[in-house]
Amino acid sequence: MLIFVYECLRQNRLSFLIESASLHPHSAAVSHVSEARKIFAIELAALKAVRAQLDCAFDQAVELIISTLRQRGKIIVVGIGKSGNIGHKISATLTSTGSTSVVLNSVDALHGDLGLINDGDVILALSYSGESDELLSLLPALRRFPVKLISMTGSPKSSLARHSDIVLNVRVPREACPFNLAPTSSTTAMLVMGDALAMTVLSARGFKQQDFARLHPSGAIGRAMLLRVGEIMRTGPRNAVATHDLTVKEALLVITRAKSGSLSVVNPRGKLVGVFTDGDFRRHMATDEHLLNRQLRAVMTRHPISIRDDALAAEALKIFNERNIDELIVVNSRREPVGLVDLQDLPKLKLM
Q1: What predicted TM-score, i.e. pTM, was given to this entire model?
Q2: Residue 335 pLDDT more than 60?
Q3: How confident is the model over 191-226, as pLDDT tens digits?
Q4: What is the pLDDT of residues 107-140, one digit of tens each?
Q5: Structure confidence at residue 1 (pLDDT)
Q6: What is the H or E stretch that residue 252 is in?
Q7: Are the beta carbons of 84 and 188 closer than 8 angstroms?
Q8: pLDDT grade, residue 2 (50/70/90)?
Q9: Which of 92, 150, 231, 302 shows a CA-CA span of 20 to 30 A to 144?
Q10: Is 201 exposed, middle or buried (0-12, 13-18, 19+ CB in 10 A)?
């Protein structure tokens, strides 16, 4: 190989050498999974370390935020670089869960954007080193307002920490970067600390699923939380229903007309007593040559899974995820089958 390289160099054939290298890569396949697992291990260890550092400062931060929100104040998040990027995510999470929050650009703040700040707001400042020049130059201006400052830093003795009312320590053993330079473990720690703040505040304020839906009316989550099952179910000719004395042959015609994969079976009083699906048909057909002439009561699945028509669509989604079914029978307060929710309809309704 060395002789070949020498000859290429001597004959000024470097381009040929480069092309040869690209056409004949190293024969042994290189797996990067082991390296990825090391990164995961480093960042998981960092999160465990930050969790162990949690103390009364976290309690104080939560109580301060709750008190601020109760007085119609807001959380103003500020950060530089990668910490600033994490700050945007934290602010978005706070806002989407009912805790009013905005992001203040550290540079623009000194050129008019300080107008975002109102008396009684809380400043959440992010800087792992706690010595970012842009952030430190902003502190004197912030301190002119009657606001409280919570810092999230990996240096509890830094300049930022000294000027803070509450310090959340996010110090990590090391970055996942092989040079211990690129913000990796530290930004992950900040992100999780922000999530912990938002979710703890959410819980302490009694924020409910209905509140979440009210703030997300256009998303799939919001629709699932606002819509009732009765608004998304198939009804009328699309809802296959038959009495338990109907034969399988007759039941198949009902299923076919409804373009469904199942049929709700009712007793003479119209109460749901079972379900007959295309899966039931296939299973019985393999062993029963007289299946078509049998009554539904003999082959149906008893005690089928069902949901009330006034339940939230989110509850139907949960049942689909947990029970691994394709269709869900909808009943009213008298346990009469009034509709059917088909899993295939959910994407069309933008619920998935």
Answers
A1: 0.65
A2: yes
A3: 999 999 999 999 999 887 767 766 766 666 666 666
A4: 888 888 999 999 999 999 999 999 999 999 999 9
A5: 46
A6: helix 248-258
A7: no
A8: very low
A9: 92
A10: buried
Residue 228's H or E segment, with its range, is none
Q: Residue 72 region, left (φ>0) first, then alpha (ψ -120 to 50), else beta?
A: left
Strands (E), the chain: 75-79, 101-103, 122-126, 148-153, 166-169, 241-243, 262-266, 272-277, 301-302, 306-308, 327-331, 337-342
Q: What is the average pLDDT across 284-306?
A: 92
On whether the CB atoms of residues 155 and 129 are closer than 8 A, the answer is: yes
Task: Tell which residue, 341, 268, 269, has the closest CA to residue 304.
Answer: 341
5 phi and psi angles, rounded to 5 deg: -65, -40
Q: Each residue of 11-32: pLDDT tens digit?
A: 555 454 445 445 455 545 678 9
**Helix ranges (DSSP H) in 26-171:** 33-53, 56-70, 81-96, 133-136, 139-142, 159-162
Residues contacting 258, CB < 8 A, separation 6+: 234, 237, 238, 239, 240
Q: Which residues pair with 341 in a beta bridge?
A: 328
Measured CA to CA, the distance from residue 289 to residue 62 in angstroms comes to 68
- Whether the CB-CB separation of 111 and 218 falls below 8 Å is answered with no
Cα–Cα distance for residue pair 264/242, rounded to 1 Å: 6
Q: Which residue's structure tokens are 């869960």?
A: 97
**Between the CA of residue 5 and those of 1, 11, 13, what are the distances in Å?**
6, 10, 9
Distances (CA, A) of 325 to 87, 220, 316, 328, 343: 41, 20, 11, 7, 8
Q: What is the rounded distance in angstroms from the CA atom of residue 128 to the CA atom of residue 152?
A: 7
What residue type is 307 in one-letter code?
Answer: I
